[in-house]
Write a structure and sequence with these properties.
Layout: E1 11-17, H1 23-31, H2 34-39, E2 46-55, E3 60-69, E4 72-80, H3 83-107, H4 110-116, H5 130-138, H6 142-148, H7 153-163, H8 168-171, H9 180-194, H10 204-209, H11 211-221, H12 223-240
Parallel strand pairs: 1-2
Antiparallel strand pairs: 2-3, 3-4
Helix pairs in contact: 1-3, 5-6, 7-9, 9-11, 9-12, 11-12
Length: 246
């Protein structure tokens, strides 16, 4: 998928897994990009990665988007039987996130951002090895990825525990059908899937922290699908003896 109108200054990279969309649907999705293109027109860097996959068990499409801007990466994830509907919801989310980002750039100091919690770089208890993370992603080995990033387990858990207060409907489920560990696992899973699109100039801890809000929103909107994914990778890690599984 590409923008034919260069005035938008938005590069779009589309990947599809377990599905193939007809040209008519792709054209419809491209038309939906116009509001986002207008929002990022003046950014020196604006690249959108779109990953669309199909789940046969639930008969729906999963759309994950990562918008790389100068100094920020915004992410969104939606599920729907129709791929273009899930995509449209992601674009709507990104438009709102870009506006909030512009507001922060224009009127909020770095000190205020720290107080509000909109800036959250995670500091690992054990520094990760970049080579090990890269190798795990290239090999498609999620268990190895979790081992290589295990130093972030505690910081992610702490921030998830604070961030979830912004979503009372999700917080109310803790101790029932959901626990903090489920959300933490989802954060790492999203990071694993999106890693190759991480801006190299952004520190890993800061980039990882940005996925916390995405994971909680996904769990709020599609709890059954997200928990299924989390449980599948957790069982795989237990079978392989991965970190945090005992």
């Amino acid at each position: 998928m590409t923008f034919s109108d260069l005035s938008y200054n938005l590069l779009v990279d589309l990947d599809m897994k377990h599905c193939r969309l007809p040209a008519a649907e792709l054209n419809k999705m491209e038309a939906m990009l116009s509001p986002l293109g207008d929002m990022v027109r003046n950014f020196p860097v604006s690249k959108l990665h779109v990953l669309i996959s199909y789940r046969h068990r639930t008969a729906d499409h999963v759309v994950r988007t990562s918008l790389i801007l100068s100094g920020e990466t915004l992410v969104s994830s939606e599920h729907h039987p129709l791929a273009h509907t899930a995509f449209e919801h992601c674009i709507d989310n990104l438009v709102r996130e870009v506006q909030r980002y512009k507001d922060r750039l224009g009127s909020v100091s770095e000190q205020a951002k720290q107080r509000e919690g909109t800036h959250h770089e995670l500091i690992p208890t054990v520094p990760p090895e970049a080579e090990a993370i890269e190798a795990a992603v290239q090999n498609g080995d999620y268990t190895a990825f979790r081992f290589a990033t295990s130093g972030y387990e505690g910081p992610v858990t702490d921030l998830v525990g604070r961030w979830i207060e912004r979503y009372p409907e999700v917080a109310a489920r803790l101790g029932k059908d959901l626990n903090i560990g489920d959300l933490v696992e989802d954060v790492f899973l999203i990071a694993f899937e999106e890693y190759e699109y991480r801006p190299k100039e952004v520190r890993f801890g800061e980039w990882l922290g940005r996925h916390i809000d995405t994971a909680i929103k996904a769990m709020a909107n599609h709890p059954d699908e997200e928990l299924e994914n989390v449980n599948m990778v957790r069982l795989a890690r237990i079978a392989e003896g991965g970190p945090g599984t005992v």
